[in-house]
Amino acid sequence: MSSKPRTLYEKIWNAHVVERRDDGTYLVYIDRHLVHEVTSAQAFEALRLAGRKLRRPDLTLAVPDHNLPTTARLDAEGRRIPIADAESATQLAALERNAPEFGVRYIDAVAPEQGIVHVVGPEQGFSLPGTTIVCGDSHTSAHGGLGALAFGIGTSEIEHVMATQTLLLAQSKSMEVRVEGVLGRDVTPKDVVLHITGVIGAAGGTGYVIEYTGNVFREMSIEGRITVCNMAIEHGARAGLVAPDDKTFAYIGGRPMAPKGADWDKALAWWRVLKTDPDAQYDRSVVIDAADIAPCLTWGTSPEDVVPITGVVPDPASFADPSKQVAARKSLDYMGLTPGTLMQDVPVEHVFIGSCTNSRIEDLRAAAAVVLGRHVASNIRQALVVPGSGLVKRQAEAEGLDRVFIEAGFQWREPGCSMCLAMNPDKVPAGERCASTSNRNFVGRQGPGSRTHLVSPAMAAAAAVTGRLADVRTLKPLGVEA
Amino acid sequence: MKQIHVVEGRAIPLGLKNVDTDVIIPAQYLKTITRNGLGKGAFETIRAQPGNVFDDPENAGANILIAGDNFGCGSSREHAAWALSDIGIDAVIAPSFSDIFSGNAFKNGILTVVLPQDVVDRLLEVARTDPISIDLQDQTVTTPFQDRFSFEIDPFRKHCLLNGLDEVGMTLTQHVAIAAFEAKMAGERPWL
Ligand code: SF4
After folding, report:
1. What's the structural domain count of chain A?
2. Sorting pLDDT into bands at 50, 70 and 90, what band is A296?
3. Where are the beta strands (DSSP E) in A222-328?
4. Minimum-distance ligand 1 atom for the alpha carbon of A355
5. Is B33 within the bounds of a domain?
6. Which is more confident, A1 or A448?
7. How large a percentage of chain A has pLDDT more than 90?
8. Is 90 exceeded by the pLDDT of residue A452?
């Protein structure tokens, strides 16, 4: 073993190289493969056509999420309610057929553990530190919050992993994003990652694996780290990583698929060395002062279009880059916003609390703390709370959070991707505006013509009760929460 | 997979930056279980605008697309590459591509050519009236006006595209190395 200091990324990478090829690419072993219904059908089909087997069904876990309606799934007699959209039903049925045919573990649509694939993986103890994790979904980077090298892949790569349990990859460069200092009041992990995206840009991390370092991430909860890494892809990074620590190990211990007994001890010994060596060099470093981060949100149609909630809609002419000026003009036109408008003066008609970015129990607690004792404003047409998994839902119900939301006028739904993307019945109608805890504000993302403002769960709750984009700090707490 | 040597023809001068995969193929078209027929949804929001570059008769039959920075960002959907294939695109030229998109494009035999912004600007200008030509073997883009620009490409990708190789089949021939790695892991990291 060489004694050259190495980054966390290099350590995980090196531990998974099967072969370095002459052309400089690597054959890399994949420890965990998550599968959902949208991107897998063509890969299963290709295996079938070529007469190939799925090499390691034991390392593969499938769960439906994107297409599932979030309304009740069983009728009064406990029978499955058929899915109205024929194409969604076909895609879901294909996964339900393919999983057993190829021997893949499958959490079905009505299982208590069902949920968004990136919520389910960590929750089940399937996602572990130091593993390579892939899924046919760009937000796979979320699992980096546990110290896993996790990234999204396309369907041909899914087929490659299914057949060989490996991928052919080029090594990425490494970037450190260090945030040090004290976060202000009501500044959440979502605000931290939106701020980072605003600073480095939507393509700022392209070609890099980013390690988030500094006391802010050390002090952050595991769920918060997952939120941050989830959006690593929104600043272009291949993957995001936070070094695993005692908090990570405590989070994983005892989960259904986590190692047990002697295996746990061995795993822990290896996980403890998973940190960047003191003298290791990153290819690029960005340092951010925690004090500069405010509760923030997006104004445009790229996740880099970030302003503090106290800010105004920017003037496109204020951008130095001429192509950004053009993009900003288009964005504002699409978003129906005028430069100079105070963000807090912008009314919304929809609020969505959910998605793999912000649908875990801490997110629901943060939103409920703002909602408690208040009511959804009269101009709000839809206010949805969609837990990330059945287990999150039950936990929230045990804590009485469902009552807080329902009594305030929110809808309390079944787990799934919901309004994060327009593939299931939950959509934002054209020309209407949504404060959303999801991760993408792209044109049409929440439905054709939909207008999205990305916010934290607390800010989404503030928007729901005020009927506009609102600064959560100006809402005095009414409830018992500190 | 089909082999690529030279891609020659009219190019669609899109030029936009940050074209995400939701723009290339909106989510409502992802509900398919096959790879074909996605062209009908390709660039739907852009094509809804009158006078857009895709429906310009000048560009009928174009097999090259020219775009701005960060083409293919956003969702990992390979449907974006399938949609481009379905509308007959064999190559995309841009100053930069998202990592996932360029991988997906490559696996579907679409050549992604990275060139600096000033070169892309020049090609956008040429594309309005004339065809351009991409030679993969020589790694050059040329125009009828004697422009000649070199580009870099990963040697492995070049090799696969020139020979039309199937990556899964190639990796399966390395099953001995993969099995050896798995055996080693069973000893070192038995919890996996
Ligand atoms: S919640 Fe949204 S971002 Fe997450 S997996 Fe589902 S569709 Fe993708």
Report:
1. 2
2. very high
3. 239-241, 284-289, 296-298, 306-308
4. 1
5. yes
6. A448
7. 94
8. yes
One domain for residues A57 and A97: yes
Question: Of the residues A243, A271, A294, which one is the last residue of a structural domain?
Answer: A294
* pLDDT at A150 > cutoff 70: yes
Note whether A468 and A325 are same-domain residues: yes
Burial of B185 (0-12, 13-18, 19+ CB in 10 A): middle
Q: Which residues line ligand 1 (CB under 6 A)?
A: A 65-66, 116, 118, 137, 139, 355-356, 417, 420-421, 438-439
A433 within some domain: yes
CATH number at residue B148: 3.20.19.10
> Are A270 and A306 in a shared domain?
no
A417 labelled ligand-binding: yes
Which residues 308-327 of A have a C-beta within 8 angstroms of B? 323, 327
- The strand ranges marked E within B79-130 are 91-94, 111-114
**Domain limits for position A329:** 296-474
Tell me what the mean pLDDT of segment A24-32 comes to: 95
Of A91, A137, A352, A437, the residue with max ligand 1 atoms within 8 A of its CB, to mutate for a pocket test, comes to A137
Last residue of a domain, one of A260, A294, A328: A294
> What integer is the mean pLDDT of A131-142?
97
Q: How many separate domains does chain B show?
A: 1
Q: What is the pLDDT of residue B6?
A: 96
Q: What's A460's domain CATH number? A: 3.30.499.10
Q: Count of CB atoms within 10 A of residue A381's CB?
A: 13
What the block records as the tokens of A356 is 């793999």
Structural domain boundaries, residue B65: 6-164
pLDDT of residue A2: 54
Lowest mean pLDDT across A255-259, A352-356, A438-442, B161-165: B161-165
Residue numbers in A near B76 (CB within 8 A) = 39, 136-138, 152-154
Does residue A482 have a pLDDT over 50? no
Sheet-wide strand order for B111-114: B11-13, B64-66, B91-94, B111-114
ipTM: 0.91
A135 annotated ligand-binding residue:
no
Shortest-distance atom of ligand 1 to CA A439: 3
* Six token digits for residue A39: 């991107």
Q: A212 and A78 share a domain?
A: yes
pLDDT tens for residues B107-126? 889 999 999 999 999 999 99
Which residues 240-299 in chain A show a CB within 8 A of chain B? 259, 263-264, 266-267, 270
Mean of pLDDT over chain B: 94
Q: Is A481 domain-assigned?
A: no
**Is B77 a member of any domain?**
yes
Q: How far is CA A332 from CA A416, A445, B77, in A?
A: 30, 16, 26
Do the domain assignments include residue B151? yes
Q: State the pLDDT at residue A49.
A: 84
Would the pLDDT of B2 be above 90?
Answer: no
CA of A247 to the centre of ligand 1 (A): 25
Q: Are residues A6 and A85 in the same domain?
A: yes
Write the pLDDT tens digit of every residue in A359-409: 999 999 999 999 999 999 999 999 999 999 999 999 999 999 999 999 999
Task: Name residue, tokens 């040090």.
Answer: A180
Q: Angle at which helices A390-398 and A117-124 pack, to 10 degrees?
A: 70
List phi, psi (to 5°) of A133.
-125, 130
Residues A289 and A434 reside in one and the same domain: no
Chain A residues 443-482 with CB within 8 Å of chain B: 443-445, 448
Question: Residues B91, B63: contact at Cβ < 8 Å?
Answer: yes
What is the rounded distance in angstroms from the CA atom of residue A16 to the CA atom of residue A166?
9
Identify whether residues A174 and A273 lie together within a single domain: yes
For residue B44, being part of any structural domain is answered with: yes
Verify that A284 and A360 share a domain, yes or no: no
